[in-house]
UniProtKB/TrEMBL annotation:
Signal peptide: none annotated. InterPro entries: Aldolase_TIM, TIM_sf, TrioseP_Isoase_bac/euk, Triosephosphate_isomerase, Triosephosphate_isomerase_AS. The gene is tpiA. This is Triosephosphate isomerase. It comes from Marivivens niveibacter. One of its GO terms (molecular function) is triose-phosphate isomerase activity.
């Protein structure tokens, strides 16, 4: 059975004072029955990891370099994330693909770097509105999934997040049928490539998930949880989503 996962992506939000949101989240969910993850900006990984040493919530990064170290000003490596206490890292988020020109091949190399050090890779894929409207959703998602997921991925070390680009931070979400179609497709592709182990990968939905729409999204087959941006910043909002998943 795949364990459900609620993962929060804080993006470029959060300073020291916001650590109180983590305290509140742990207070609201002392013994969660689903897996929890918060991916704060890199500056908060170490304090968050220290705070959560007695709680099952995992702390993750939002990106890593393909190399372990070297002359890459401003970048962070998987080794550094691991050293700071991270257990996972989001890779290939559409904002990184758009802002930093990350290709599927780059995302796959970053995933290898993360997996080799023992971090869980949360690999993001998803179509733009233009691609959806021109009927290319499954082609795009299939291509990104194949190109971004390395051969060393398996159901235990890698999570796939389906995030339609046009649903991120917009308040718009696909219909439940559209979400089901893509999640079933991703599952089938994973099983084609990884055989029986394809059943073990968790596939999250991401894009404008809130407490008010979470339950109906989580009721869809092959939706194993959510990657949540805006609604993960406040513990009380994120808690509503976690409760819908439990
Ligand atoms: C995200 O950035 O991964 C995301 C899903 O954002 P939001 O929940 O704000 O749409």
């Amino acid at each position: 059975m795949r364990r459900k996962l609620a993962a929060g992506n804080w993006k470029m939000n959060g300073i020291g004072i916001d650590l109180e949101q983590l305290d509140r989240l742990m207070e609201l969910h002392p013994n969660p029955t689903v897996d929890l993850m918060i991916c704060p900006p890199a500056t908060l990984i170490h304090p968050m990891a220290a705070k959560t040493s007695e709680h099952p919530i995992h702390i993750g990064g939002q990106d890593c370099h393909t190399n372990e170290k070297g002359a890459h000003t401003g970048d962070i490596s998987a080794v550094m994330l691991d050293d700071a206490g991270a257990r996972a890292v989001i890779l290939g988020h559409s904002e990184r693909r758009a802002d930093h020109g990350e290709t599927d091949a780059v995302v796959a190399s970053k995933s290898v770097a993360a997996l080799e050090i023992g971090l869980t890779a949360v690999i993001c894929i998803g179509e733009t509105l233009e691609e959806r409207e021109s009927g290319k959703t499954l082609d795009v998602v299939g291509e990104q999934l194949a190109g971004s997921t390395p051969d060393i991925a398996n159901g235990g070390n890698t999570v796939i997040a389906y995030e339609p680009v046009w649903a991120i931070g917009t308040g718009k979400i696909p219909t439940l049928e559209q979400i089901a179609e893509v999640h079933n497709f991703i599952r089938a592709e994973l099983e084609k490539r990884f055989g029986e182990d394809g059943k073990a990968f968790r596939v999250l939905y991401g894009g404008s998930v809130k407490p008010s729409n979470a339950a109906e999204i989580f009721a869809i087959d092959n939706v194993d949880g959510a990657l949540v941006g805006g609604a993960s910043l406040k513990a009380d909002d994120f808690s509503g989503i976690i409760t819908a998943l439990e």
